[in-house]
């Protein structure tokens, strides 16, 4: 099972939960989650603050990004689809 498979099956999971489930070190999972987040493949939210940063930290939760190509804005995706159709 890959990290993306686990997140898809358990939306809202944390890095430590993924590490425990995959029997991998938390630091390795967090590095891979950061890479997936930067690539737009996963969406990161802060569990306790609704996505706002806190000085005391907070546990991040992860979800698979449902939009293709790392696009996280549905309006941007719709615009790109309509533009593609207009150019065809």
Automatic annotation (TrEMBL):
InterPro entries: HTH_MarR-typ, WH-like_DNA-bd_sf, WH_DNA-bd_sf
Pfam family, one: MarR_2
GO terms assigned for molecular function: DNA-binding transcription factor activity
Species per Swiss-Prot/TrEMBL record: Escherichia coli
Domain of life of the source: Bacteria
HTH marR-type domain mapped to chain residues: 2-53
Name listed for the protein in its UniProt record: Winged helix-turn-helix transcriptional regulator
